Amino acid sequence: MTVTVYGIPNCDTVKKARKWLDAQGVAYTFHDYKKAGADAGKLAAWIDAKGWEVVLNKRGTTFRKLDDADKADIDAAKAARLLEANPSMIKRPVVEYDGGVLVGFNPDDWQAALG
């Protein structure tokens, strides 16, 4: 199985997720948003699969610091543009695996998909 984890290495949730994968013996490739950025095509695919409301993290400081115009009237296209410009707003981690995508870390969901 091919597994790619997308995130930021110093994020606590990403650290927990990577530790879980290691404990399960799941090999994966890590994509660091800070170094490699966020690909527009991937963002669109994740939004199509899970919905922009799941992929866009509105609880983080990056989103809260946006001006009101950027926060207003968000749809899938606007969310994709915001996420490409501000990868820190992508809910972490995002995991692509053969047959699907996971957003956020939930051990039960991960076990069902990857275990």
Radius of gyration: 14 Å
Total helix count? 8
Mean model confidence by pLDDT = 95
- Most strands sheet: 4 strands, mixed
Give the CA-based shape: globular
**Spatial strand order of the main sheet:** 2-1-3-4
Secondary-structure element string = EHEHHHHHHEEH
* Total beta-strand segments: 4
Assign the structural class, choosing from mainly alpha, mainly beta, alpha/beta, alpha+beta, or little secondary structure. alpha+beta
Low-confidence stretches: none
Q: DSSP strand (E) fraction?
A: 5-15%
Amino-to-carboxy terminus distance:
11 Å
Helix content: 40-55%
Description of the molecule:
The protein is 50% helix and 15% strand. It is built from eight helices and four strands. It has helices at residues 12-24, 33-36, 40-50, 52-55, 61-64, 68-71, 76-85, 107-114; strands spanning 3-7, 29-32, 94-97, 100-103.
Summarize the structure.
By secondary structure, this protein is an alpha+beta fold.
Features of the shown structure:
single chain, 115 residues, alpha+beta, 8 helices, 4 strands, 50% helix, 15% strand
Task: Describe the secondary structure blueprint for this structure.
Layout: E1 3-7, H1 12-24, E2 29-32, H2 33-36, H3 40-50, H4 52-55, H5 61-64, H6 68-71, H7 76-85, E3 94-97, E4 100-103, H8 107-114
Helix pairs in contact: 3-7
